[in-house]
Every structure is written in C-alpha cells, then in structure tokens.
Amino acid sequence: MKRFFKAFAVLVAIASAAGCAKEIETTSGENEKRYFDAWLSVQMENSVMDSWVASCMEDDSYSCLWQEAGNGLYILAEENGTGDPVKDSSYIFVSYVTYDLDRNVLETNREEVSHKTGTNYDVANYYGPKVWINSDASLTVGVKDIVSGMNIGDRKIFIVPAWMNTSDRYSSEEEYIANISSTNYRIYDIEITDASNDINRYQTDLMQGYWEQEVSKTGPENQKEYWDTTYTGFLFRQYFDKLDKDENGSPAMLFDDDSTIYINYTGRLLNGQVFDTTIADTAKVHKIYNQSKTYSPVAVKWSADSTSITLGGSSDIIDGFKSLLKHLHNEEPGENEAFTDGESAVAVFYSGLGYGYYGSGSTIPAYAPLRFDITVVKEEE
What we know:
This protein is α+β, with helices and mostly antiparallel strands. The protein contains 10 helices and 15 strands. The protein has helices spanning about 1-20, 30-45, 50-55, 110-115, 140-145, 175-180, 200-215, 220-225, 280-285, 320-325, and strands spanning about 65-70, 75-80, 90-100, 105-110, 130-135, 155-160, 185-195, 225-230, 235-240, 260-270, 275, 300, 310, 345-350, 370-375. β3 (about 90-100) and β4 (about 105-110) form a beta hairpin. α1 packs across α2 (about 30-45). Mean pLDDT is about 85; it is low at about 1-20, about 220-225 and about 330-340.
C-alpha cells in the first residue's frame, strides 16, 4: 500500500510539472505530507480504518473519530478513565501496541496481541505495563502531545505522521515538515494504567503492600518474629525453623566470615513470574527451562563485607542480592559449630538495588521490584 501511494505522490508531482514551463522542486517533507494526505483520503473515504478501529476496541458500534489534534496528529478512538491527569515529567505505566500504516503490529507489551500476531512472543517474556517518562527527552513529540492530554485509565488510538516522530520541537506544522528526519508513520494504541511523580516511593509502597500480604500467610503469631524491614527499598525475611536462636531470639547462621557455602535461588517479579532459578523443576513449572543451562546449587563466598561476596566466582551481583546474602549472618558461630542445610531466606527490593531504569532483557521490565528466595545446602550437589 505504501509503495502505491508513494508512486501516486510522484505521479501527481510529474503531472503538475508537465503543465508548467519550469519544473517545481519539492522537499522530502512535502512529499511525505502528500503521501500522508493521500493515505488519509483513502482511509476516510472507504472507512477502512473504521472497521479496524472497531475490532481493536472490541465494539462493533465503534467508529473512527478522525479528530485532528494538531500538526498532523489524528485521534481515531478514545475511552475515558476516571483517574487523575497525567503530569509532565511523571512516570506513566502504559499498555500499548504500535502499528505501521498497513496495521502490522510492530511492538506490544500486551500478551494476547503478541501471542495472536506472533510479535516476538515468548512465554518467558514479561507482559504488562511498561514505564515511560512523560518528557520531551523520553518520548517523541507526537506521542508526548497526546499522552499529556490523557488521564489515568484513558485509552487512545492515534496516528503520528513521520514529521512528528522527532524529539525536536517547532512552533508550526510547516516547520516540522521542513525539518523532517523520519519516514516512519505510526499508529499507537495506548492505555495509561497508572502514574507517579516519585517512582521510588511508588515501588516502596508496592513492596509494602506485597510484603504485608506475604506476612499474613505466616499467621499473626509469627509476623513480628519472622519479618524484618531493614532499610528503604529492601525487605528481608529469614526462616530459621532448623536454626538455634541467640539470646534475643534471632536466628544464628552457623558459618564463618570468608566461608564458601552453596545455595539454590529463585528470582521472580512481584506478579509471581519467575525469571531465573538454579532448580530445574522450578524452571520447568514456570516454563523457563533451558536445556543448555546447568541447574545446580551455586557457590557463594560469604563475607560480612557485601562488596567482597562472590556468586559462582563472580562479584558482578546486583546490590539487592548481595544484601540478601549479607543479611544471612546474624550471630558469630561457636568453635565447634558448622552451618546446616535448609537455612533459607527471602528478600524483596526495589529497582535501585536491581536492574534500575533499564530492566534486563525481555523478562525484567524497567523500574521493577524483585523477589529472591534462597536455600542454603551443605555442598554442591
């Protein structure tokens, strides 16, 4: 379709030139504008986009708004939420799909869309809201202009022409077209599920709610004994059913500083999705099993100084996991004591101690709090 209209635009230019004594030169921006106008004309006349929008909105009675939003932006459909307006520079949680003008899916974080269209679908991937920063530095001008007019809970389908796929701001559509730097046209389907002006506070509040739910599972009589909030962004719990306790009732881990111990661990998001484990059966249950990976306990060189802790011989460990290992030591062992297997602990920590604003691959999103469970074993098995 795109080639056809590109050719159409060229033919129009040729026909115009034929009636003139002097050939009229056009810029790439003007050609892109003609192409886009021709595409719009066909879509509006034939209502091709209307039926597609209706299927996206899952409402047969829904039709395109074709609402102009300035500088070539068009809003095709919208559903209004009940939340607060999105603020500039806020962190917004977005469920989205992007399409080209032929309505091919280019990118999405909606599992059903990814699965249906085969767009980089993998059962191990994270599917859920993605964090965007509502700023000119993070979003293209076209997306920023639409998002800034939305509320939490709103959903909009809109078209961004090529000249609005830029981070540079101008005062008029003519200037955007004259300074065009992209030939990519995009259709966005965006729903804002939440927003926050303080992403760290947002995460700690989320962790606290998660923590309280997990505490409630242990029974009221054990809540105070088993749980410990150690510092901002990090929560820790140690299970010591098999351990002796010190005079204050705290568990006594039975290994010395600079000891080598072995652990099994499982890492997951707060929605329960497992992204890493040393246990084969756990990997299979959560559908992340990799035949090329060796599933076995990993060696930890333990130290009271978290910067000296190594995992599998490497010191390249995220800070939250290091803190989890460091907090295993609660009391110095006696002369004839040795640690026992079955000692276990869990930690939940925010992204500042994990993978930050980048996340990790397709399994850990940006600004994601993480949970790690570990179990100490006697030796590598």
